[in-house]
Amino acid sequence: MSNKAYDLLVEDLSNLGIDIEQVKTALKNQHIETPSWGYANSGTRFKAFAWPGAATTTQQKLDDAAMVHKMTGITPTVAVHIPWDRPADDDYDAMCQYAEAQGIRIGAVNPNVFQDDEYKLGSLGNPDPAIQERALDHILECCNLMTKFKSDTLSLWFADGTNYAGQDSLRGRKRRFEAGLRTIYQHLPANSRMLIEYKFFEPAFYSTDIPDWGTAYAWALKLGPQAQVLVDLGHHAQGVNIEQIVAFLLDEGRLGGFHFNNRKYADDDLIVGSVNPYELFLIYNELVGAELSDDEITSATAQNVAYMLDQCHNIEGKMAPIIYSVLNCQESYAKALLVPRKQLAEAQRNGDILGAHDILNNAYRSDVRPLLAQIRREMGVPSHPIAGYRASGYEEKIQSERGLADPSGGFQ
Ligand code: PSV
Ligand code: MN
């Protein structure tokens, strides 16, 4: 892309009253967290596929996350899932130091209270107090790990629910959950927060204990300011207006973070923005609008949102789709930064329906590639990160060094 295209864009933006330097600073400060589990082999309920070079150890996952950061410049942290990422010798300090030596840090800590046989009937919602206790112990261990990792985010997702009417008391499960969440809240390290993730179905199909944002929000409100809601794009029915949920939670100071992915897969595993880039833009549009809001709580909430990918790619490789996802977020953010907010507000005030719609769509239709190439050059990362990755030889290196791991068990 020539510099001429960049110069033209700058001119257009200045005519709209948009400060290009502010846009560039915002883009350079963008932060997307990648998931350690996205670098490992994974699959569907029907088959786990092995990908040559997929990471099998935590060290390899950290290496891969660091490589994604080298290519994009905006992924300095990696979310961990415990015990998937428990080091064989339990040496979490060494794990932390290893990450830092690669130029990245550990981000959100995700406890896993769904993979053990004991959790067949759930974790915090389990009718057996001993299993509830076991789940709590593990989550409290994760609270301690947050301090070790210098992480300020505990990211909670529960597979709890029931498959048959009458299987368990719905009110009973609610009460057990509430008690468990309260205990976790009391153990959060200072200046940290817990994010409550909801999912409307799966693996339980009759009832899910945290099925929607309303339930997560109600509990966050009851618990206190350190509890917020996590929006996983894949956890909504098709057609749900996610940007409206985002707007509501931002305005209430309770949007804590995202798990980005594509909901066409029902869950986590397709590249965010690959099917509906307009939706991703509209979500970012709400976030940028909130960042710039005069309301202190809204703007502080928006600035503190944890942007995380939650994707495990099964058949299209590991590294390239993660880089692709990061770039889709970057592109959507860039377009949202180009929305002329004053003009939009004026059109909205005047009831100019199509005028307002057009202002938004003009930003969406802008070609931001010259702008992104420019900021990447200034950040010292490849101006085409996927091409840069392909040319780096990293994929060949991990394929020859790591080979084809046994995919059984998926997340190792
Ligand atoms: C569950 O579907 C989920 O979205 C949760 O965030 C888990 O932690 C993650 O996927 C990995 O299974
Ligand atoms: Mn998720």
Describe the protein.
Helix content is 48%, strand content 12%. It contains 16 helices and twelve strands. The strands form four sheets. The chain has a five-stranded parallel sheet with strand order 6-8-10-11-12. A three-stranded parallel sheet has the order 1-4-5. A two-stranded antiparallel ribbon has the order 2-3. Helix 8 runs parallel beside helix 9 (277-291). The chain is globular, with a radius of gyration of 22 Å. Alpha-D-psicofuranose binds next to loops.
The structural class is alpha/beta
- What is the molecular shape? globular
What name is given to the CATH topology of one domain?
A: TIM Barrel
CATH classification class of one domain: Alpha Beta
Query: Averaged pLDDT, please?
Result: 95
Largest sheet: 5 strands, parallel
Side-by-side strand order of the widest sheet? 6-8-10-11-12
Cα gyration radius (Å) = 22 Å
Q: What is the tally of helical segments? A: 16
Ligands in the model, by name, code or SMILES, are: alpha-D-psicofuranose, manganese (II) ion
- Give the CATH architecture of one domain: Alpha-Beta Barrel
Q: What percent of the residues sit in helical stretches (DSSP H or I)?
A: 40-55%
Which band does the percent of strand residues land in? 5-15%
